[in-house]
Design brief:
Rossmann fold; alpha/beta; 7-stranded mixed sheet; 9 helices; single chain; 48% helix; 7 strands; binds S-adenosylmethionine
Length: 237
């Protein structure tokens, strides 16, 4: 491993351990997201119907794999740019009969392939794109959905009266004061990540761009009790 790779690996390991701690304590409400996703998929497909499901920026796939193992005929594709994340994902998705893991930037994956899917899901990664990149993202999604296919996102959003700065302050306070079972060092890692990378948008702006791309109006499937995260869904027409 050269010096740069070793630095990247260390950075990944530090952030990844902090992220694992978030999941372990359910601080970003992954269990509620899983319940909402499971309910929607059950209503849509039952447990026997064949459908394809792409998980963009899948990470370790733990949340989606936990849900999808209930659906015996799902064809799962997990996409992530990190090989370390995909190593974990390969363990967590082993119960899914038809599964593929792809190491790629998710925008490149959407732009370069032609296969279409019944469900495209993204969890806690699209809020890094910022408003100006959503048009491109949603156009790519529309091109890769089957007719009637669903685009589901579990993301942080701004509250209707909240600026980005206010959002980051609110989230940082939640992390510092309420995520108290996590070590101070991990909390600090997450606060720094939020300050550097988070660019959530208003659901109203997301909705405008999603409909401009030709998808249906966004429906909110769940909101976390702290109003940080929502699961939203739009369909291909
Ligand atoms: C916060 S985790 C989210 C994991 C999972 N989706 C979840 O909901 O818990 C972010 C993941 O996105 C991946 N990621 C970030 N940007 C990416 C990109 N442009 N293309 C592919 N993967 C990306 C990271 O490697 C990491 O595994």
């Amino acid at each position: 491993m050269n010096a740069e790779n070793s630095q990247n690996f260390e950075l990944f390991t530090k952030s990844w351990k902090a992220y694992q701690a978030i999941i372990e304590h359910d601080y970003l409400w992954h269990s509620m997201a899983a319940t909402a996703l499971n309910q929607w998929l059950s209503e849509q497909f039952g447990t026997d119907i064949l459908f394809s499901f792409v998980d963009l920026a899948c990470g370790d796939s733990s949340t989606t794999a936990g849900v999808l193992q209930n659906f015996r005929n799902v064809n799962y594709t997990g996409v992530d740019s990190s090989s370390q994340a995909l190593n974990e994902a390969s363990r967590n998705t082993s119960q899914i009969t038809h599964q593929t893991l792809v190491e790629s930037d998710y925008l490149d994956f959407l732009a370069t392939g032609e296969e279409k899917y019944d469900v495209i899901y993204i969890g806690l990664a699209a809020h890094h794109l910022g408003l100006e990149n959503l048009d491109q993202f949603f156009n790519l999604i529309r091109n890769r959905l089957n007719p009637g296919g669903a685009f589901i996102a579990y993301e942080t959003f701004l509250l209707p009266d909240e600026t980005l700065d206010e959002h980051k302050k609110r989230l940082s306070l939640i992390i510092r004061y309420f995520w108290s079972a996590m070590s101070l060092a991990y909390r600090q890692t997450v606060v720094e990540h939020v300050a550097m990378n988070d660019r959530p948008v208003l659901i109203a702006d997301w909705n405008e761009k999603v409909t401009n791309a030709g998808l249906t109006l966004t429906q909110v499937l769940m909101k976390s009790p702290d109003r940080l995260c929502s699961m939203v869904i739009s369909a291909s027409k």
